[in-house]
């Protein structure tokens, strides 16, 4: 083959190679676009099914936080005996029972939100225990001590509830 023939062969092959490269590029671009569209549709369909479940989980945790708020807890749970320790244990048992009942909701929430809810629960129990260490002997006086502590500072439940509300509002963005 002479140099002239090679140049002529290259001149014939060049448009075919360029056309093939452009076709490959557009085919690859089209394939990526279709994959993205399929993922978007799949995500949209799954969102339609999972969003109500997630909202229900947030609702249940909001209810949990409202129920363990110290001011509502001591009003709702009356002492069953004259023993302060029994009443303290009853309050803590109520909180633990509520928490265990809603334990499965954590799979629908972010880790940060779940950790804040657990912290609110543990802090509430800690407040009850610290009020139980006071020198008062009657459950009614313990109730007063707990309520006085909640008057002085924000309830852990309220702080956690504010975070839950923020996270739910982020679902709409």
Summarize the structure.
With 173 residues, this protein is mainly α. The chain has helices at 3-68, 70-76, 84-101, 111-132, 139-152, 156-171. The mean pLDDT is 89.
Name the beta content range.
under 5%
Rg measurement, Å = 32 Å
Low-confidence stretches: none
How many beta-strand runs? 0
Helical region count? Answer: 6
Oligomerization category of the chains in this entry:
single chain
Mean pLDDT: 89
Shape: rod-shaped
- Separation of the first and last Cα atoms: 67 Å
Give the topology string: H per helix, E per strand: HHHHHH
Largest sheet report:
none
The helix content, as a percent range, equals over 70%
Q: Pairing-aware structural class of the strands and helices?
A: mainly alpha
Description:
It is a single chain. The termini are far apart. The relative contact order is 0.11. The protein has 6 helices and no strands. The longest helix has 66 residues, at 3-68. It has helices spanning 3-68, 70-76, 84-101, 111-132, 139-152, 156-171. Helix 4 packs across helix 5. By secondary structure, it is mainly α.
Notable characteristics:
173 residues, mainly alpha, rod-shaped, 6 helices
Question: Which secondary structure elements does this structure contain, and how are they paired or packed?
Answer:
Blueprint: H1 3-68, H2 70-76, H3 84-101, H4 111-132, H5 139-152, H6 156-171
Helix pairs in contact: 1-6, 2-5, 3-4, 4-5, 4-6
